[in-house]
Structures are given as structure tokens and as C-alpha cells.
UniProtKB/TrEMBL annotation, chain A:
Keywords: Cell membrane, Membrane, Transmembrane, Transmembrane helix, Transport. It is found in: Cell membrane. Residues 88-296 form the ABC transmembrane type-1 domain. It comes from Pacificibacter maritimus. PANTHER family: INNER MEMBRANE ABC TRANSPORTER PERMEASE PROTEIN YDCU-RELATED, INNER MEMBRANE ABC TRANSPORTER PERMEASE PROTEIN YDCU-RELATED-RELATED. One of its GO terms (biological process) is transmembrane transport. InterPro entries: MetI-like, MetI-like_sf. The chain crosses the membrane at residues 31-58, 94-117, 124-144, 169-192, 232-255, 275-300. GO terms for cellular component: plasma membrane. Its main location: membrane. This is Putative spermidine/putrescine transport system permease protein. It holds the Pfam family BPD_transp_1.
From TrEMBL, chain B:
It comes from the Bacteria. Keywords: ATP-binding, Nucleotide-binding, Transport. This is Putative spermidine/putrescine transport system ATP-binding protein. GO terms for molecular function: ATP binding; ATP hydrolysis activity. It holds the Pfam family ABC_tran. The keyword ATP-binding applies.
Length: 306, 340
């Protein structure tokens, strides 16, 4: 009976595929098409080099050459040297201070642009204004701090003229302080942007409702605005962290070689062709950055906020 | 008692409110009816203190409140979009005012909990306290917004189109509940809406806001059957307002109004002698179920509507494009002097 069945559904399913199936397959092909360039790029220029760096970090380093005999010597030297452990600590300390100072400087700016400026055009204009310093090169932005902070720089001259100090402040330039100032200025905008967008998304009537229920502005900020903007702070923190942890140029040009970050170590080791050792520092840095991002993502569930 | 006297508010050259005089008595459900863009929401925002009037005075029990910060006014505001705090649970939303208000906040957690529970019970949301505000329906969100406002026991509650975001079924139910809740609490509600049905159903008193002023404020049945101005009549969506000159010279240069259900239709020249009449072309009809609307165009271009009830049909068969005489008894007529 079933062999000679003339059920139209059965025959049509055999002869032609259902339109839904065809469409599903087409959608899947399109998704793959969109994904492929990114995947190839990531594989060639991120995953592969990363594996390579880990591999190289176990190579044998002699004074002028490196060969692929596997050894843990570079790792042992790195982890037992106080210079390098201090560099890790310096990197973490500078990262934390810069992170906090970009939040302290950036949050009020973002609060102003995102919440108090309700005109979208003006909002965009102000955000663009924050990016204007980026129209010049990174190096110029950093080096511009020298005439500002130097012994005969603008700040010292003004303070001397005002009689606030009797001799120039020397800690301003070529110190950890100048590195912190430089980094805060450069990376602040990466904090301002995400926080502004998050604040701009807060429905103004939510804030009015809180006011109407009797809360003062301070309370509204603490209980409503701040919690709702935290995902923005977290995204900004990830941006700033990734960039500050890998930094070397600001420290190189503003610290007078007094501040050694992991990034500076990599640069100098590569400069003296110590590939294995640079690779170790690179792996350590990657582990730190990964840990920091994982921690940040754990603190705020971004999936929920996007 | 909330009193507004000579309240004006401009935005640049645009006049939103132009000398509003308005009183909301104690223990009253007051509806405020106005078309969109008429300044209803502005009026509420001025009372709540989110904006300040350019002129005039707002007072509660003859104590002036304009100029005071919104969080010190002790006025409840229920937003059209509910404006719930998205990061807090239902119970935390309701407890917000009790816990964080600047003036005598509660610190006793069990008292806050009790009052929150009580407020949630009042709006029929018992047991929903732990839910996130994203995990409840539109009608439930509306109730949370209401509970959050009522728990603070404000001196007056302002509702900005509170039913606008709800579907028709829910709207009808919330209407009854809002009235019941208000009667239980004995606090005045000022309910702003663009729907005349909603305003007439809900209000102990209905005020009509038009051209930046309160044009009439009366009991619903009075307002509906005896509008004092052409604006008020137009807002009832039950009156034809037109130039009296269409019915003969005696009424010329006056705006007159006749209710949809008090106009009759007959063939040209057959209108009763004691009725006023005017010529108009039949445009089209609209069948709404229990009622049917017929649309006519008068000779000066104004649109007239006549309503026919299914149970008592009184219109002849009408042919689109043909002229008819519309007539009505002079008792049905309302004249507005100088309002045109």
C-alpha cells in the first residue's frame, strides 16, 4: 500500500525541497560569507602569530642568535629577575592609576555631554571635539607635554611668576608623574566615548521619575545614573586597559627611562635581537591583558546591556 | 486643592500655554482633555516642577510651589512610558521613593517592605516584587508605575496619558481600577488624555485644554451636552460646529454647534418648517457596528457628521454625491458668540 502511495506531500518532498529549507541554507551561506574574511584575518594575523610567540618563548637564546631547541631558560630568567618582576608591578600600577584617572577626568565630561546636552547635533560635535587631538600624530601629542611640564616649561614658569613656588618643580617631567599625565590625556577619550553613549541611552523620564519620587540630584546620580552607566565605564575600562597595558611610547618619551613597562622591555629586547626573551614578555603581557578583560567582563554582563 | 493661575509657557516663539486658570479640588478625579500638541504634558510638567512657567502661579492649598525643586513638591507623576528604573526589581522600584527621598526617608527595612507589599497589593501585583521590570507585561508595568507613585502618598497624582500604551481590553479594565484605587486613597488624580471617551468615563470633572487655555471645566455630562465654547464642543467629537450663516441670515457670523445625533436628513426642500436646515452633499458612510456615521459636505466646505443608531434607524437611503437637506430643531442648537 505505502509503496504506491499518492500522498501529494510525500511526492513533493521527494521531488523538490521545501522553500523554507532552501532559504535556511541560503541564510547560512550568507552568514559564512560574512564571517570568512574576519576568520581568515584572525587566523593569519592573530592566532598564528600568538602560537608562534608562545613557541619562540621556549627557544634557546644565545648572545647573538636564537635557535629552535626547546628550553625554559628564558622563562626562568624572566621570572627570577627582580628587574622584570618590578616591570610587571610597574605596568600594573601605572595601568591602575591611569584607569582611575581616566574615569575621574572622563566621567564628568561624559556626564555633561551625554546627559546635560540633549541636542544630538551638539552632542556629536562635542564628542568630535574630544577626538581633535587625535588628528596629530601620537608622538607629537606625547612630546607636546615636554614644553608644558619641563623645568622651564609652561607650568613651572607660570607657578614661578605667580610666586607659588620659588624654584622649578622637577618631578613634573621625566618621572612617573609625566607618564601618568601623558597617558591620561591620550586615553581619556576612550573612556569618554562609551560612557557618553551609555548615558545618552538613559531615558530622561527615568531621571525625572526619580526626582519626582523625592530623590535629590545626588541620590538620583548614585542610585540611577551611575548604575545605568556602569556598562559604559566597563567598556571604556577595557579599551583603556588594553591600550595602557601594551604601552611603551609614552613611557619611553616622557619618563626619561625611569619607568620600565613590559612594553618597553619587549621593545628593547627585540632591539637587541633577544627574540626568545621578548616572546616571554609578550606572553606574560597577553596573559595579564586577558585576565584583566575576563575580570571586567565578569563584573558587568555586557550581553545584557547591549 | 491645586490652583493654577494665569500660567503661561513659551518655547521660543511657540506658545504652549497662554494664561491657564485651573483648579483641581480635593478628592476628585479630574480629567484633562486636549488634542496632541495642545500643551497637556507641558501643563503636568509645570505642576511637577520639571519645567517652570514663564508667568503665573501654581499653588497647593494656597502655598506657592512654582520655583520649588521637583523632589520637594510632594507631587506624584505617572509617566506615559512608565519610566521604571530598568536596573531595579519591581519591589525596589516601588520602594525607591520611601527609601531615597530627601525629606523623611524611611530607614526601617521591615516598614519599607510592608508598605511596598501593601502598595503592590493595592494595584493587584501581589507576589511580583522579586521580578525584574523587563520580565512583566505592559499592563503590569503600568501598575508598578502607579504603585511606585502612590506608596509615597503624594498630595496629588498626575497621570500623563496613563492608558495610552495599553491595549484596548486592558485599558477598559485599568479605567475601572484607577477610579477604584483613587476612591480608596482619597487623593486627587489629574488624568491627562487625548481621548474624549476616556476623559468622560474617568473624570468626576473634565477640563478641556485648547489654544493654550482651559476652555471649559465641568462635570462630564454637562460638558458633553452643554459645551460653552466651540473648542469644547469640537473636543467632544460628537458635535458639528459650523458657520450659522449656512442656515440662513438670522445666524450669520456666528459659530453654531449641533450634536451628531440631533441632525436629520431629508430630500432637498422637504425639511419641516419649524426646523433650521442647510444644504449638504452626502460624501460617504462609515459602519461601526452599533452605530453608523454619515459624512456630508456643506456648501462652504465644512464637514458634517450624522450618527445613526442601529436600534433606531432614522436616515433615508443615501446616494453618494447627491445633495440633501440637513435639519434640526432650534432646541438642539448651541450658539457661541464671538468664538468663531
Amino acid at each position: 500500500m505505502s509503496a504506491i502511495s499518492t500522498d501529494p506531500r510525500a511526492t513533493s518532498a521527494q521531488t523538490a525541497e521545501s522553500p523554507a529549507l532552501i532559504r535556511e541554507r541560503k541564510d547560512r551561506r550568507r552568514a559564512l560569507g560574512l564571517l570568512t574574511p574576519g576568520l581568515i584575518w584572525m587566523a593569519l594575523f592573530m592566532v598564528l602569530p600568538m602560537v608562534m610567540v608562545i613557541y619562540v618563548s621556549f627557544w634557546t637564546q644565545t648572545t647573538f642568535a636564537v635557535n629552535s631547541d626547546l628550553t625554559t631558560a628564558s622563562w626562568e630568567r624572566f621570572l627570577s629577575s627582580s628587574t622584570y618582576l618590578t616591570a610587571i608591578w610597574t605596568t600594573l600600577r601605572i595601568w591602575l592609576i591611569v584607569l582611575v584617572s581616566t574615569i575621574v577626568v572622563g566621567y564628568p565630561v561624559a556626564l555633561f555631554i551625554g546627559l546635560f546636552v540633549r541636542n544630538k547635533t551638539l552632542q556629536t560635535a562635542l564628542l568630535v571635539a574630544c577626538v581633535i587631538p587625535f588628528w596629530t600624530s601620537f608622538l607629537i601629542r606625547v612630546i607636546a607635554w615636554r614644553p608644558m611640564l619641563g623645568t622651564e616649561g609652561a607650568i613651572n614658569t607660570i607657578l614661578l611668576k605667580l610666586g607659588v613656588i620659588s624654584e622649578p618643580l622637577t618631578f613634573l617631567l621625566f618621572s612617573e608623574f609625566s607618564v601618568l599625565v601623558g597617558m591620561t590625556q591620550i586615553y581619556c577619550v576612550f573612556m569618554v566615548g562609551p560612557i557618553t553613549f551609555m548615558l545618552g541611552r538613559i531615558d530622561i523620564s527615568v531621571i525625572e521619575a526619580a526626582r519626582d519620587l523625592g530623590a535629590s540630584f545626588g541620590t538620583v546620580f548614585r542610585r540611577i545614573i551611575l548604575p545605568l552607566s556602569l556598562p559604559g565605564v566597563m567598556v571604556g575600562s577595557i579599551f583603556v586597559s588594553v591600550m595602557v597595558l601594551g604601552e611603551f611610547a609614552t613611557a619611553a618619551s616622557l619618563s626619561g627611562r625611569k619607568v620600565n613597562l613590559l612594553g618597553n622591555i619587549i621593545v628593547s629586547q627585540v632591539g637587541s635581537l633577544k627574540w626568545a626573551f621578548a616572546a616571554v614578555a609578550g606572553v606574560v603581557l597577553t596573559i595579564i591583558i586577558t585576565a584583566v578583560i575576563a575580570l571586567a567582563l565578569r563584573l558587568v554582563d555586557l550581553r545584557k546591556e547591549m | 486643592m491645586l490652583t493654577l493661575s494665569q500660567i503661561s509657557r513659551f518655547y521660543g516663539d511657540t506658545v504652549a500655554l497662554d494664561g491657564v486658570d485651573f483648579v483641581v479640588p480635593e478628592d476628585t478625579y479630574m480629567s484633562l482633555l486636549g488634542a496632541s500638541g495642545s500643551g497637556k504634558t507641558t501643563l503636568l510638567r509645570l505642576i511637577a516642577g520639571f519645567e517652570e512657567p514663564n508667568h503665573g502661579e501654581i499653588s497647593i492649598n494656597s502655598k506657592r510651589i512654582d520655583g520649588q525643586a521637583p523632589h520637594l513638591r510632594d507631587i506624584g507623576f505617572v509617566f506615559q512610558n512608565f519610566a521604571l528604573f530598568p536596573h531595579l526589581s519591581v519591589a525596589e522600584n516601588v520602594a525607591f521613593g520611601l527609601r531615597y527621598r530627601a525629606e523623611n526617608p524611611l530607614s526601617n527595612n521591615s516598614e519599607i517592605l510592608d508598605r511596598t507589599q501593601e502598595a503592590l497589593k493595592l494595584v493587584g501585583l501581589d507576589g511580583f516584587g522579586h521580578r525584574g521590570v523587563g520580565a512583566i507585561s505592559g499592563g503590569q508595568r503600568q501598575r508598578v508605575a502607579l504603585a511606585r507613585t502612590l506608596v509615597c502618598e503624594p498630595r496629588i497624582v498626575l497621570l500623563d496619558e496613563p492608558l495610552g500604551a495599553l491595549d484596548a481590553n486592558l485599558r477598559a479594565r485599568m479605567c475601572d481600577e484607577l477610579r477604584a484605587i483613587r476612591e480608596r486613597l482619597g487623593v486627587s488624580f489629574l488624568h491627562v488624555t487625548g481621548s474624549e471617551t476616556e476623559a468622560l468615563t474617568m473624570g468626576d470633572e473634565v477640563a478641556v485644554l485648547a489654544n493654550g487655555r482651559i476652555t471649559q471645566s465641568d462635570a462630564p455630562d454637562t460638558l458633553f451636552s452643554q459645551p460653552r465654547t466651540a473648542e469644547a464642543a469640537r473636543h467632544m467629537n460628537a458635535w458639528n460646529t459650523f458657520d450659522g450663516g449656512l442656515c440662513g441670515d438670522a445666524l450669520s457670523n456666528q459659530e453654531i454647534a449641533v450634536r451628531f445625533d440631533q441632525m436629520e436628513v431629508c430630500a432637498p426642500g422637504t425639511a419641516p418648517q419649524d426646523h433650521l436646515s442647510l444644504k449638504a452633499q452626502y460624501l460617504t458612510g462609515e459602519f461601526n457596528g452599533p452605530t453608523a456615521l454619515s459624512f456630508f459636505r456643506a456648501s462652504d466646505g465644512s464637514l458634517l457628521q450624522i450618527i445613526d443608531h442601529l436600534s433606531q434607524p432614522r436616515l433615508p437611503d443615501l446616494i453618494e454625491g447627491q445633495d440633501y437637506d440637513l435639519h434640526f430643531s432650534s432646541n438642539a442648537l448651541r450658539q457661541f458668540h464671538g468664538a468663531a
